[in-house]
Amino acid sequence: MRHRLSAVLAAFCLLASPAQAGEAAPRAEDPLVEKRLVAISSELRCLVCQNESLAGSNAELAVDLRREIRTMIKDGKSDGEIMDFMVARYGDFVRYRPPLKGTTLVLWFGPALLFAIGLFALVRYLRRRNQAIADRPLSADEQQRADALLDARDSGQ
Amino acid sequence: MNKFAWPLIGFIALVALLAVGLNLNPREVPSPLVGKPAPAFSLARLDAPDTTFSPQEMHGKVWLLNVWASWCVSCRQEHPVLVELSKRNLVPLVGLNYKELRGDGSIDMDKVDAASERRMALERAAGWLRQHGDPYTLTAMDLDGRVGIDYGVYGVPETYVIDKAGIIRMKHTGPITPDIFSGKILPLIGELAK
Q1: Alpha-carbon distances of B69 from B65, B125, B126, rounded to whole Å
Q2: Segments forming the whole domain that contains residue A110
Q3: Chain B residue nearest residue A51, CA to CA
Q4: B32 vs A90: CB contact, 8 Å cut-off?
Q5: How many Å lie between the alpha carbon of A109 and the closest alpha carbon of chain B?
Q6: A12 shares a domain with A87
Q7: In this complex, how many residue pairs, one in chain A and one in chain B, have their CB atoms less than 8 Å apart?
């Protein structure tokens, strides 16, 4: 088990560096298949360790699912068909990029909506504050007091 | 209105949102299989390894499918509930033994050929049931976990409630507690059995 796992990991590492991509071939796996496997499984969540992708996880189930995906690729299934296979079993949650539909609207637009609300509140607050501190002419009474104060200072000198 | 009213309302709304979020169980992923027909399979039976079990045999009955394995620690936790359930003879309880050997991380599967895997898995599973009690009407052996994938199994134990037409009506991930059993599963069984 552990051997096979490290072999798979080694294959991933080799594929990750473009310079050596050609040399990944010695492993019996077809490099094109492996490349698609990495591309697809990077889009999928590992359900056992939920913050890892299926490509990066060492969980038992992730190994099984990668094997399953590899088989499907070899059987000539399209990426879309493989995605559908996964979603039919584990739900939209397995996709790191969930589809846009009724139940995911809040997920997609919630943050933008919160931002818009925040921006609106900020603009409104700033406008109001501006109005509150806008210059307004002194009333006659205030003018008189100001003059009196200024006179007092002038005469004091 | 007080000038603090709106920020306060916003703050309370945010706290409420976070409180709900924190109380959700991230392990509980809604299964897309609920409301869909139980995936077909044909697997060897633990009690009679030369015969197979397939879900079609349960057609016309309300039944439970419980995914378990001897290496699964949480299965031990829910086992008394299942034994209790079987004593009450309410519905057939079918076990799906999930990756008896392969799921047990301590075995190097490269050194085990298919025939010995089958033999060892049957021995281990039967031994475990002898030790802890066998609540299952029968158990089907999913050695490589392929059927588990079709059922969207990602954490053993898992339990499915399947109706007379073979439609999955509920899936529970994790051990069945007495609360879940009497609060959720039992009422559903009663309703489906009508």
Answers
A1: 13, 7, 11
A2: 102-156
A3: B26
A4: yes
A5: 16
A6: yes
A7: 50
